Amino acid sequence: MIEDISAARDVALAAVAGAQTVDLLDQFVAEHLGKRGPLASLKARLGALPTVDEKKAMGQALNEATSAVSAAADAHRAVLAAVERRAQLAGERMDLTEFRRPPARGHAHLVTEAWERLEDVFIGLGFKVAEGPEIETDWYNFEALNMPPSHPARSMWDTLFVEHGAPGSTVLRTHTSPVQARVMTTQEPPIYVVAPGRVFRNETADATHMPVFHQIEGLVVDRGISFADLAGTIEAFTRAFFGSGFTSRLRPSFFPFTEPSAEFDIRRPDGSWLELGGCGMVHPNVLAACGIDPEEWGGFAFGFGIDRMAKEYHGVDDLREMYSNDVRFIEQF
Ligand code: PHE
């Protein structure tokens, strides 16, 4: 019988040692040390032994075998439990690495970036920044700019009106030129200002037009200002903003508030031209309407689209894309 006990113990020890998980280990312990296990059936044979000494000896051997298996199981269970705990912790570990990386930084809107760069360039040329309201009176948007009521030139701008005051008296400014009048009525010459801002026109959006867009206005009022000063300023600005490969040209045009008037184009390094804005010598009627003596002072003004500059600068095909807020588009810049 002692061999049977040793054999049952060794089988049980081997099973316990081979268990890969705590669950399997518990299962093996139950099988080998349980009521229906080999050691239990050996115990059942004790009663049939002939002598008390044999009963005692075999009983002791069975107890020792049982304790040995239990002790081995406990030791192995501790090892398995530690391994399982480690695996569980590793599995539950949260990946916090993304919080440690510096967060990805975005950037200002392409038009805001162009707006700020334009301000920088003009400040570098000696200008100050001025601003005016987006909701404007008819007087500043048109009348002070040499366009009396019903003047046909008003139709150059598809105007959006605001229901405020007398019908037609309040508009969403169609250009930044009313800021010229606001500056001239409040500041003494010499004046060197640029006025960037949002403007509105009753237009359908397409690749090169938006009903809401941005312009930057330039105004100089000083003594002895000539058309050459205007052309030189536009050329200096073109090179400062786009780079030395770019140049500018003026084409005769018409605006009621400048005389003579011109449109100006930017020549790209590949020789193609981009129409950018309008300019001219401030009309004496405008100076007079704003309380500046046209006999003593002269000036020039220009205005052009910031959105178009941003579009050109970044090689964007369609103005509308800049306002789609599509991250895949934005992240390219
Ligand atoms: N305000 C004009 C426009 O929106 C541009 C311009 C500004 C022309 C200043 C001449 C002088 O078309």
UniProtKB/TrEMBL annotation:
Keywords: Aminoacyl-tRNA synthetase, ATP-binding, Cytoplasm, Ligase, Magnesium, Metal-binding, Nucleotide-binding, Protein biosynthesis. Its EC number is 6.1.1.20. Gene3D superfamilies: Bira Bifunctional Protein, Domain 2. Belongs to the class-II aminoacyl-tRNA synthetase family. Phe-tRNA synthetase alpha subunit type 1 subfamily. NCBIfam families: pheS. InterPro entries: aa-tRNA-synth_II, aa-tRNA-synth_II/BPL/LPL, Phe-tRNA-synth_IIc_asu, Phe-tRNA_ligase_II_N, Phe_tRNA_ligase_alpha1_bac, Phenylalanyl-tRNA_Synthase, tRNA-bd_arm. One of its GO terms (cellular component) is cytoplasm. This is Phenylalanine--tRNA ligase alpha subunit. It is found in: Cytoplasm. One of its GO terms (molecular function) is ATP binding. GO terms for biological process: phenylalanyl-tRNA aminoacylation. Its cofactor is Mg(2+). It is an enzyme of class 6 (ligase). Residues 118-310 form the Aminoacyl-transfer RNA synthetases class-II family profile domain. It catalyses: tRNA(Phe) + L-phenylalanine + ATP = L-phenylalanyl-tRNA(Phe) + AMP + diphosphate + H(+). It holds the Pfam family Phe_tRNA-synt_N. Tetramer of two alpha and two beta subunits.
